[in-house]
Design goal:
The protein is an alpha/beta fold. The protein is built from 22 helices and 34 strands.
Length: 733
């Protein structure tokens, strides 16, 4: 929706007085943009001496809005936000910006207190005024930057005065790049890049000594910060634990190593210090440099009763002269390799990307996983040496893949079932068989396919290759059908078209009754000729009567659907007829602009139904109402309150409002409890096929499959011009 259209909608709905207030706020520059969401804009409006601004949401898809003030629909803040948003767009701004009157810059004045620093915030206004700040910035009646708000939260949580080193570091991280700061009256720049302390290794008698020293070349050093060339930055010990920092203090002399510990010092201890992100400076010439061996992964395989034990280690050398176990560096010979933590991580990540589990962790793979691992993963582990033993007879893989066999049987429906539906229900049994009696269950086949394995376990032992080409084409459809079966194997009514599609594509025999039921579901042929409900004060036109009978059929078959007549053909009347024919309570969700139309139409065509409008700041949910009408904005905001009632019908008018499945509105609609669901929309697909998926995700979750499956099976092929995919989707819906 264009911002000009939204502005016009707000102008039409706003009383003159509130519109004037909104104009004044917008002219004063009291509006600023905060965020752009999937389905709207979030803005803030500053009003008077109120310490916090009001938050306004403007839809970018429909003429909808909301404000945290709850003072009107729309209120003055919504008016101001719509005006500022429109004017900002005319000026080339994605989001409006507040005027100088509502903007304030905060300067941070640091002062020395011995080895510590204290800080005073100063508010600098656009007119040149300055004002020390000791409390909340909101009291100034102006917007402030996010980092100033974060800094305020930190400073107000501690006592005034010199800051401890951890709080000072956190403050400098928040204020990174802040140029408006001073230290003892001199301008400084605040940086977040830490100035690290240095570990220095020197001689100590016949051995060696390691100590932690201040960074070189500083102008000044404080607790938690350092000053150099006009830049105030936090000091850092990296991720070094406090105990290690205390042990490395130069006055404690706790880190002294004998000559016999030189190999461990070079190969393990100093690399561990470097892994903390602390620079290491070696000022002795007596330490061995070690062997420059590249770390790699060694994989060990061992048979186990339950399957295969698999474990990987980082090692140095071939054969290994050192191994990393649980972070410790274990020497296996006289050579002392220098550890390279970065290369170790790269080797470990490359192994995990292929193997699916990290180094250093023992994994016990069940036989099926072991066969797939040996068949598919191990050959792709370049540069990894494999040791140990795995009996190939336990994990044998036959050469011929298993093929699908589909059996469909039909059963008589109970007498009370709808006779025009064909008089039968259908059961589906799927199995996979290979040559020489090899058999696999459909569940194991689909699981192996989804896990991207090449083999599937056989019921009589061993493994067989998957029919991957068939599964890539029909797997999503088969999953959908198997999930649509009840405990007795009967297929749900709404999956009948999918069942016929699978049978036809696999050259299976389609029973005649199944074909008739498919035609009945697709074309509505043979709909029961029921009369409109008593109490309906209208004469339905022939196509409207057909629409009512179709809605009743969906209800009786426990299906849900979309009534997609064009505008002006009476979708509202047909929906009212089926609501009147069904015991309530019912919930109708509609754009704000047509709420009054629904209330008026129900009163005209179904006067015996009690109607309640759930809208406005004083809204209350009427538990005695037959029909409750609300807006999409309130569906999103009050989803918890609206979900407390067990609705018979939830009707979405102009249902394209939930075309974005990631929007909060769509998620709120899907969370409403309802026995029957109905969408009314003359444009169920406006721009993209995934909008249709979103509507059906609300109506019958899983009916069009997972979103990614829908993209792979329908969206991409149809966009590429595949007529078969287009026909398959038409048959489904």
């Amino acid at each position: 929706m264009e911002r000009s259209e939204l502005l016009a909608a707000v102008r039409r709905a706003a009383p003159a007085g509130l519109w004037s207030q909104g104009v004044q706020l917008a002219r004063a520059g009291a509006v600023r943009g905060v965020a752009r969401e999937d389905d709207g804009l979030v803005l803030q409006v500053k009003e008077g001496a109120r310490p916090t601004p009001y938050e306004v949401w403007l839809s970018t898809e429909d003429p909808e809005w909301d404000c945290t003030c709850g003072q009107g629909d729309p209120c003055a803040h919504v008016c101001a936000a719509a005006i500022a948003s429109f004017r900002g767009e005319e000026e080339g701004l994605d989001m409006p910006e507040a005027s100088d009157r509502y903007q304030v810059q905060v300067r941070y004045d640091f002062t020395r207190r011995g080895h510590r620093l204290a800080v005073q915030r100063v508010a600098c206004f656009g007119d040149g005024r300055e004002q020390p700040v000791s409390g909340a910035l909101a009291e100034l009646g102006a917007f402030s930057e996010r980092r100033d708000t974060q800094a305020e939260s930190l400073l107000l949580s501690i006592r005034p005065g010199p800051m401890d080193e951890e709080m000072l570091r956190r403050l400098l991280l928040i204020l990174e790049g802040e140029a408006g700061a001073t230290l003892d009256g001199e301008a400084v720049t605040l940086a977040a890049n830490p100035v690290p302390f240095v570990v220095r290794v020197s001689d100590e008698g016949d051995g060696f000594r390691a100590g932690l020293y201040r960074p070189p070349g500083l102008d000044s050093l404080f607790l938690g910060a350092a000053l150099n060339d006009g830049v105030l930055a936090p000091t850092s010990y990296g991720t070094m634990p406090p105990d290690e920092r205390r042990a490395l203090h130069p006055t404690r002399r706790l880190r002294v190593f004998g000559a016999d510990q030189a190999g461990w010092l070079v190969g393990d201890y100093l690399p561990r210090l470097r892994s903390f992100g602390v620079p290491v400076e070696i000022v002795t010439e007596r330490l061995p440099e070690g062997e420059a061996l590249v770390p790699r992964v060694e994989l060990r395989l061992d048979d186990a009763v339950e399957g295969l034990d698999v474990r990987a280690h980082i090692v140095y050398g071939d054969p290994p002269v050192a191994r990393v176990e649980q972070g410790r560096f274990v020497k296996l010979g006289q050579v002392v390799p220098v550890r390279d933590p970065g290369a170790e991580r790269r080797a470990a990540r490359a192994f995990e990307a292929i193997a699916g589990f990290p180094v250093g962790v023992r994994r016990r793979l069940p036989p099926a996983d072991a066969a797939s691992f040996l068949e598919d993963v191990v050959p792709r582990l370049d540069g990894v040496s494999v040791r140990g033993h795995a009996d190939p007879r336990r994990f044998r893989v036959v050469h011929d893949e298993v093929r699908p066999v589909l059996d469909v049987s039909q059963h008589a429906l109970p007498e009370e079932a709808l006779q025009s539906a064909g008089g039968t229900s259908f059961s589906l049994d799927v199995r996979f068989e290979g040559q020489e009696g090899a058999r696999a269950s459909s569940a194991d086949v689909l699981k192996a396919w989804r896990l991207n394995r090449r083999v599937v376990p056989l019921l009589d032992g061993g493994f067989a290759p998957l029919p991957r080409a068939w599964l890539d084409r029909h797997g999503p459809l088969l999953e959908e059908l198997l999930s649509a079966r009840d405990r007795e194997g009967k297929v749900a009514r709404h999956a009948t078209a999918a069942l016929v599609e699978l049978m036809e594509d696999t050259e299976g025999h389609v029973p005649p009754d199944l074909e008739r039921l498919k035609s009945f579901l697709e074309g509505g042929e043979g709909l029961p000729e029921v009369d409109p409900p008593p109490g309906l004060q209208a004469t339905l036109r022939p196509y409207q009567l057909a629409g009512f009978r179709w809605l009743r059929f969906l209800r009786d078959m426990e299906l849900h659907g979309i009534l997609a007549d064009d505008m002006g053909l009476g979708k509202t009347l047909q929906a009212i007829a089926v609501l009147l024919d069904t015991p309530g309570p019912h919930l109708v969700v509609a754009p704000t602009s047509v709420i009054s139309t629904w209330e008026r139409e129900i009163g005209r065509f179904a006067p015996e139904m009690r109607v309640s409008t759930y809208h406005g700041p004083d809204r209350v949910l009427d538990v005695k109402a037959d029909v409750v009408i609300t807006s999409y904005a309130l569906l999103r905001l009050d989803r918890v309150q609206l979900a407390t009632r067990p609705w018979a019908y939830v009707v979405l008018d102009e249902a394209q409002a939930i075309k974005n499945p990631d929007s909060q509105t769509a998620k709120a609609a899907c969370g409403m409890p309802a026995k029957h669901r109905l969408c009314l929309s003359g444009t169920p697909v406006e721009n993209h096929l995934e909008e249709l998926w979103s509507l059906f995700r609300y109506l019958m979750p899983g009916w069009l499959g997972p979103r990614q499956t829908f993209r792979d099976r329908f969206v991409r092929p149809i966009e590429a011009g595949d007529p078969k995919a287009r026909v398959a989707l038409r048959n489904r819906v």
